[in-house]
Amino acid sequence: MVKEAVNKYKELAQELKSAQKYDDLLQVYELILPHQPTNLSMIKDVCILYLRRREPDNAIRTIQRYKVETEPQFSQLYDKAKLLKEALRKK
Question: What does pTM read for this prediction?
């Protein structure tokens, strides 16, 4: 039943993304990712959503949790998260 649930959540995620309901989308992605830890596209979207919310620590934790720091498509995102973290600390 897990597979069916994940598929339903993925459908819901597409609807939320289309409706630009990003806070709800983030919550749904967080439910899906433990079941699809190699979904790089979703991991990237989660990190971007965290950065939009100005939560760089969560973006960094997500990158580290799914061990994608060395993936080329994440290096720039990882750097942006660290820069945002530093900028927020200086405020």
Answer: 0.92
